[in-house]
Amino acid sequence: MQVTEGAANEAPELPQLIANTAARFKFVEVSADKGYISKNNLQAIVVVGGTPYIPFKSNHTGDKGPELWKKMYHYYKFKEEDFLADYHRRSNVESTFAMIKAKFGERVRSKTVAAQVNEVLCKVVCHNLCVLVQSFYELGIEPVFWAETSDAQKIKPKA
Predict the structure, then answer these.
(1) Cβ neighbours of residue 9 under 8 Å, at least 6 residues apart?
(2) Region of poorest pLDDT, from 41-45, 63-67, 73-77
(3) Among 14, 33, 66, 150, which has the minimal tally of Cβ within 10 Å of its Cβ?
(4) Contact predicate 32/45, CB 8 Å
């Protein structure tokens, strides 16, 4: 993870983020907003086997640039409904960010970069726990913890 200044443009960070993530995970598709549209970002996604779903800005055309740029531009323009169906999956991520900010605050208060990363990761863990507990109640799930299972009962704790 790369932490940037609050007003910094994050789009140039995408190729390295994609490369780092591809070392551990397989890409199928990547959705991002218009701010991330660039030839470098499209290429970084395709190189690791993913399909980029990044809308083009109104002043972009498919006339110039590498073949990949033209191909994605024409897919965006001529299959817009299909493109947007894939692109709008990112709204799940946006909803998650909004939930985290609403519950735990928008600001990161730590001073050092390492502490800021840890603070954000803690907010994500807390959010996941809140969603899990809420799901227990909404879906009527009775949680069974490992220590309550018969296998756990057989293990004697060390004194």
Answers:
(1) 35
(2) 63-67
(3) 150
(4) no
Place of tokens 């735990």: 104
pLDDT at 158: 64
**Residue 86 to residue 136: CA distance in whole angstroms:** 30
Whether the Cβ atoms of residue 32 and residue 54 lie closer than 8 Å to each other: yes
Over the stretch 23-35, which tens digit does the pLDDT of each residue have?
A: 999 989 999 888 8
For 112, the 3-state DSSP assignment is coil
Q: Beta partners for 29?
A: 51
Contact (CB, 8 A) for 45 and 51: yes
Q: Phi and psi at residue 113, in whole multiples of 5°? A: -60, -45
